[in-house]
Task: structure prediction
Amino acid sequence: MAEKIECAVIGAGVVGLAIARQLALAGREVVILEAESAFGTHTSSRNSEVIHAGIYYATGSLKARLCVAGKHALYRYCAEHDIKHQRIGKLIVATDETQIAGLKKYQSQAELNGVTDLRWLDPQELRELEPEVACVAGVLSPSTGIIDSHGLMLAYLGDAQAHGAALALGSPVTSGTATDGGIVLHAGGAEPMAIQCDIVVNSAGLNAQAAARSIAGLPPHTIPPTYYAIGHYYTLTGRAPFRRLIYPVARQDWLGVHVTIDLGGQVKFGPDFAWINRVDYRFDESREAAFYNAIRRYYPGLKDGTLQPGYTGIRPKLTGPGGPAQDFVIQGPREHGVAGLINLYGIESPGLTASLAIAEYVEKLLTEQAAAAPRGVTPSNMP
Result:
């Protein structure tokens, strides 16, 4: 017999933990179901650990709105919870005259998104800020920063648990059924369980579509296709030549091999971009030459032998090769017809930055659903 619980969050990545925290703070009973033996083992720990400003995303998109709101919320949260972070800023640079138009587009798009602090820099100003960077123009984003993503997830989890949430590790969701009395989930692992939930939030990241397909009663046509893109990161040996993040003008499908500096001062280059057909984190060292070539366009002083293989990360994408850039997809009952179920798809960058804003957005969807329920009918048994 299934144990009854108000809310289940599938996935203990940074976004799932933020959502669990939000629901627990709102007084809801929450259990977090995580397939792995630890939280945040996939996209949440295999990224650039950047707090993004919100520059690139389409006007009015969820990515734009939630990134900008999430950035402000995240800086406040880090200050209040003593989470390591630095607002070190980012330079976006044009390495030749043909890329200047792209820089101006960034500046215009940023303003449309409510990011009004970008500053145009000429070559002399850029040399004063970052002497090792070769470029013809650039813009400075002073509100871009870096963060300890593990520390952030620990804080989210701590807040959630302090308000009664429980984390079940090694508990992959194997199946589910939408019923008149709620959604019944079956979780495997060493201690299999069945729980009947009023609310289920599917924040399973790379496995979100698989988790959704396991729930009987969810219309299959509402589940988007699954694509994976892998990115490699190389680390730089020796002294850090930069004080800020450095991003080249982007290609159409990715932001190029950029410079990230972690909180320990380690310089990382990446990610690159390649399509894969499964979750596989193996590092392809044959990409080294391409990294040297890409980096030397803006850092000609890069010496042979100073790049070392770092790690890889995988992004959940909603369109494949040649497809247009996709927004976050956050579906509630209005989209799929299953009361009490929220599905999050394609939560890639800037998911970490937007995590608190995404959590608020999900809570708002649930509150609106409850308000729309006819009197005497609970959300879990709405038609």
Q: What stands out?
A: DSSP finds nine helices and 21 strands in the chain. The mean pLDDT is 94. The two ends are 24 Å apart (CA to CA).
